[in-house]
Amino acid sequence: MSAETMNRAMTAARPEMVRGGRPWRWPRGMWRQDHTSMAPRATLAAALGAGAIATLTLQVTVVSIAYLLTGVAVAATAFATVRPRPTGLQIGAALGALALLAVAAVRGAEWLITLCVVASWVVGSVALVGGWTWTGLALASTAVWLTPVRVTGWVRRGRARLRTGRGVKPGRVLAVTAISVVLVLVFGSLFVSADPQFAELFGAVVPDVKVTNPVGRLILGFLVMGTALAGAYLRRRTPRFDALAPRPGRPVARWEWAVPLALLDLLFATFVAVQVRVLFGGDDHVQDTDDLTYADYARQGFWQLTAVTVLTLAVIAVAVRKVDRKDAGDRLSARLLLGALCVLTLVIVASAVHRMSLYENEFGFTRLRVSVMATELWLGVVFVLLMVAGVRMSARWLPRAVLASVAVGLLGFAALNPDGYIAERNVQRYADTGDIDVGYLRGLSVDAVPALDQLPEPARSCALLGMDVDDDPVWFEYNHARSRAREILRARPVGECTPTFSR
Prior knowledge:
Elements: H1 3-12, E1 16-19, E2 22-25, H2 41-57, H3 66-80, H4 88-102, H5 110-129, H6 134-140, H7 148-164, H8 170-194, H9 196-205, H10 214-236, H11 254-274, H12 276-279, H13 282-288, H14 294-319, H15 328-363, H16 367-392, H17 398-416, H18 418-433, H19 438-441, H20 449-452, H21 459-464, H22 480-491
Antiparallel strand pairs: 1-2
């Protein structure tokens, strides 16, 4: 390689960006340049295995245990093949990310699985990179996409060491593997056709892998392999994104922030005091107020919560940067004023939850309404965390705590089984009132089948009409909800939906 070619390669490997016509480099000490490290053999083999697992088992459109299998392969590559050893926090975050992927093996609602996969990516990225600030956590989620040039050089140097070393060459391993597979398939097919008992044994040992859309599968496998390599590299050469976080704000005189906060607390307190009957009036308030419907009552609570949440979080974010934490009087004033603001906000959170509960009991349960309720409850947890941070006057742990609350809350939401819960509550409402929207229930996932199976005919058949449950899949496409729904529908097939049934 010529000196000019080497210089171009080293220049391409630098993590630079162009800003204003000038190259922009990462701040010193945040992510050091790397021109010497080499990918270990175990990492290359594990990443190749992760890509193969994804190629053969994972279909993005099929909710199954394959999501967890792929996640385990990627995590093993990143945490078991490179140094240093993972810390307890990293192991906990990695297990949390895998737990979110495991939801795909239990639940069948695609919208829920999408949320869990996105959350798993974020939690897994934080397990690799870490971070204590909002900036660090946000950039951690993008870290994998910032590594292609670095990972390419890392892998190329690792492959060069394998070619010059005395160990087993990767090319020879691939060649021997390909020859072995061909020999087993050729002679195995002959033996299968010669003996039915051997055919049954051979079929049990060799899985029936359905390779549909081979090009897409190969692309997916390549992306998973690249993600595994990037994860291992980030563990080996971890950037410190916290260095990009804004510096602490410059404190100002106490009255400059205390007066606005005091007036805001007074406004909130007056609103809550005047609106106590409105906030918690429930059925009596709706029935006694002219031109007020349950829809309006709940909608007011939701937008009220949204506006107050954004306002409170924005005010706290600005105020804490202006407080002189070294001054005892400032610390006490901040605790009182910001704590009161959080408490008043929690009152309005409780009001919104109460309103949505009344609305659901009156008009039934839907995904949107249940999701809004869950979000409101999570926001209440966030405000409690803010109050704890205010008491301690230390929020270094807060970003991670909020992220952990998202992961735990989403796992709890999955444990609730939202589609099954919606179906169960609507079935109970049908038993109590005789009202049911089978058109909406028909659009739920297989998670709702056990509850919908409790409906009397013809409502049951109308709600389950068109429920998509495939035949017995291969083992890596297993999904508990789909398997249970298949058993129920085989035991009690869907009958005829009477056209006159319209409720």
